[in-house]
Amino acid sequence: MPRKADVVIVGSGWAGSIMAHQLHRAGLSVVVLERGPMRKTAIDGAYPYSIDELRANVRKRLFENLAPQTVTIRNTPHQQALPYRQLGAFLPGTGLGGGGLHWAGCMFRAMPDDLRLRSAIIERYGRKFIPKDMNLQDYGVTYDELEPFFNQAEYVFGASGEAWTVRGKRAGNGDPFAPDRSKPFPLPPLREVYSAALFRKGAAACGYHPYVIPAANASRPYTNSYGCQLGPCNFCGYCSGYDCFLYSKASPNICIWPALWGKKNFTLRTDAHVLKVDLARSPAGQGLKEAKAVEWYDGETGTHQRTEAGMVILAGFQLSNVHLMLLSGIGQPYDPVRNTGVVGRNFVYQTITSSRVWLRPDQHTNQFIGAGGGGVAIDDFNCTNFDHGPLGFIGGSPIWVNQSGLKPIEAMTGAGGHGQPRWGSDFKHQALETYRHSIGMDAHGSNMAYRDVWLDLDPTWKNDWGQPLMRMTFTWHDNDIRMNRFVTSHIPRIAEAMGAVRVEVGSLKPGEPFDVTQYKTTHLAGGAVMGTDPRTSALNRYLQCWDVPNVFVVGSNAFPQGMGYNPTGLVAALAYWSAHHIVTDYLKNPRPLCGRGVSS
């Protein structure tokens, strides 16, 4: 294990693997520190071990052990935050590949207005349309700037999909709301299962614009530019929460890490829990600091280690990146009373609810079949694709049928819908009807940032190393509840056009608090956001820390607000964007890449 490296990367998921590959290819010595165990798909993902639902979905083998390290959670500042000790609302991954190993595979690009939402809202509706308690911000980077890096990510992942336009010309029956592309998808779209085909028919009958969900589940055999191979998806239904024994679902473990095994000047350490980044005054002055080393705990030997670094990349899960910044003194912690400071500010989630549609007994949906990113969606109520003026809220949501494979144990937990028997002959009947003849339909919505939602260090609870746990203050706000209720109000009409015999709409209730016990999504974001103003962002537009220029923080932590899509596609594009500017600009002259308050 080297005691010094040109760059130390914390985390081995999509962000960490992309940064490691790009910086190592540029000639840097790279050390990657991963807190969890080694996970190689050929071993850990082997059939049939990898598709054990009890081990994966119930006992959650790919997810973080919350005993030594977790977060504390409260809904409001007046409550006592308590540790999140049982996996519920969100499931942080751990081990090689991180969340990129257990994800489902939906592979979206951000909408152009997602990246400039504040500007778009002001242009359409004026500044007064933005609630006073909402910290709405632009990313500081445009879709046109990121477009080549979306391409790069999709071709490494082996994305399957259908474009609407390519270079301004109609290319297929993709999402008509999607921005133009310079290249088509590397692979054709996945086949549509029966439930998705029904949704397409029903949505089109209602005048909406259905399209196949872009997926990082290979529709055909594929070899990416790194020489890594993927096999075609067979719709086994074991995607989210599982390795992919078919090598069909893109993951860092399949698509990137094999290209680095055995390379000189590359070191990966698992069971390495990073404790802090050591800082010193920067010789450049101007109040800047410089990262000198990374301190970490070696789980294999039970010893504390220190690795010197010329540059540090924080590329872990969103919560981990923000926590390390707070523990290390990188950036000013956010103060919600004064609305000052940047680290912990603009913590966001996603506003997601699920509905269920029951069909006739002769319509078999075969829910055990599925692909993690497979399905059909509409974007008619996403982002700025509709008129928000008379509605009085900001944000939106796609609606989709994403049949990713319903497993037997999971199917029994919600059989029959709300208010149905949970035992006896009626339960058995409802379980059969739900499993064989129903369809899940999701509203996968945005979540705005608010002044009274933030992350900070908990004054009471500590982790196994004596450090303060990070505290999350979060609940649903009226803006997002009204958005969710508006979007889900269109589900019954679509369901009726699909031939539904019964519909149960899932939507948030006015004033409903965030419930940590029920799973929603692992799409957490914000807390160390990017931007062009150091007063409201922790990172500049290249994901470089304003105050510590040799630290870059890569992940969904950079999102100023939560969008209607899952974050992976944008995280990957931003990682390639940041790596490109590190290699082509920063390494030639290490310095702040942006003037304070001025984008470059």
From TrEMBL:
It comes from the Bacteria. Belongs to the GMC oxidoreductase family. Residues 462-575 form the Glucose-methanol-choline oxidoreductase C-terminal domain. InterPro entries: FAD/NAD-bd_sf, GMC_OxRdtase_N, GMC_OxRtase_C. Pfam families: GMC_oxred_C (PF05199), GMC_oxred_N (PF00732), NAD_binding_8 (PF13450). This is GMC family oxidoreductase. Residues 231-349 form the Glucose-methanol-choline oxidoreductase N-terminal domain. Keywords: FAD, Flavoprotein, Oxidoreductase. GO terms for molecular function: flavin adenine dinucleotide binding; oxidoreductase activity, acting on CH-OH group of donors. It comes from Formicincola oecophyllae.
